[in-house]
Amino acid sequence: MSVTPDYKAADTRYDGRMPYIRSGHSGVRLPAVSLGFWHNFGSVDDFDKAHATARCAFDNGITCFDLANNYGPEYGTAEENLGRMMDLSFRPYRDELFITTKAGYDMWPGPYGDWGSRKYLMSSLDQSLRRMRLDYVDLFYSHRYDQETPLEETMQALVDIVRQGKALYIGLSNYPVDTLDFCFSYLRERDVPCLIYQGRYNMMDRKVENGILDACRDHGVGFTAFSPLAQGLLTDRYLKGIPEDSRMARNHFLKRDVLTPQLLSKLNRLNAIAAARNQSLSEMALSWLLKDGLVTSVLIGASSPAQLLTNIGAVRNTDFTADELYEIDSIINK
Questions:
Q1: Which residues, other chains included, contact 244 with Cβ-Cβ below 8 Å and sequence gap of 6+?
Q2: Structure pTM?
């Protein structure tokens, strides 16, 4: 796939098709759907296709690009590719974009390339800014809780990152619920309130409903859902089994033994509900997350513009009847 060398963003990008939802008690509104760079944007992927997908996202009102230091593969290459895209397409639109990155997982060898120390977080963000060719990011996340580093050290590093002008806002991801009152309070008391929490959430995985969503609401913190399609399970990809070219066939992040006959039956029953709503299964899964205002933005991956456009159709119908919700829950919980 090739892309034209001269890019002008679509004049229709803010025509009302993409809703923008306020993040907690902040002044920031994020698109209901954000584009994640975890897969499909690394050095092993087709850059022109990734570039076309990012352009398609922005042309359709997706202003939030979500990255992390070690997204690729190889580590760092998703950020490097975003840097190339900034120079080729998005530099004139920098102030219209909300670019996020993270640090917390393995990035480089030795004791300072992982977890939540001040040394790691600050060094990692400096590297990320160089790779992305940016002066600052809009949002920097601590990507996971580090039980061996004092929370005060991690939180103060985040405060200082904002005060240094390297990030406008701070977020947390994958933190256990029993740490959130302390973290949210610490940040707010230092005038750097947590903008958003990012957690795994989909129709089949609802662990964040056990306290995390409540904590975010009580502290005025937004919530971004990652893995909204359960790594592809909540799509039409696996309704008839495991395709040879699928992620599950590679048996890496999504294992073959996950797709039991019982799960396959559930997916097909959910697909029938989606069809009755004139939606694909993936559209319904994304709509379900946006149904009640608890989720600020749903983070999707996309391997092509066509796949992206299919998924963002979810924003056209986020209303569910009580009967639909009851039937979905009955299927999932059976």
A1: none
A2: 0.95
CB 302 within 8 A of CB 40: yes
Rg (CA), the chain: 19
Tell me how far apart the alpha carbons of residues 180 and 35 are, in angstroms, rounded to a whole number.
26
DSSP, residue by residue, 60-116: TT--EEE--TT-SSSTTHHHHHHHHHIIIIIGGGGGG-EEEEEE-S--SSSTTSSTT
Report d(CA 308, CA 247) in Å as an integer: 17
Yes or no: say if 188 and 21 are a contact pair by the CB < 8 Å rule: no
127-139 residue pLDDT tens: 999 999 999 999 9
- The alpha carbon of 312 is separated from its chain's Cα centroid by a whole number of angstroms, namely 14
Question: Which class in CATH covers the domain with range 20-233+283-318?
Answer: alpha beta
Q: What percentage of the chain has pLDDT greater than the value 90?
A: 89
Tokens of 158: 């985040």
The count of other CB atoms within 10 Å of the CB of residue 118 is 15
Sequence-distant (6+) residues with CB within 8 A of 38 are 68, 71, 78, 226, 301
For 254-295, write each residue's pLDDT tens digit.
656 677 889 999 999 999 999 999 999 999 999 999 999 999
How far apart are the C-alpha atoms of 276 and 279, rounded to whole Å? Answer: 7
Q: For residue range 314-330, what is the model confidence (pLDDT) as tens digits?
A: 999 999 999 999 999 99
* Distance separating alpha carbons of residues 43 and 289, to the nearest angstrom: 31
For the chain, give every domain's residue range: 20-233+283-318
How far apart CA 28 and CA 152 sit, in angstroms, is 26
pLDDT digits (tens, 9 = 90+) for 144-198: 999 999 999 999 999 999 999 999 999 999 999 999 999 999 999 999 999 999 9
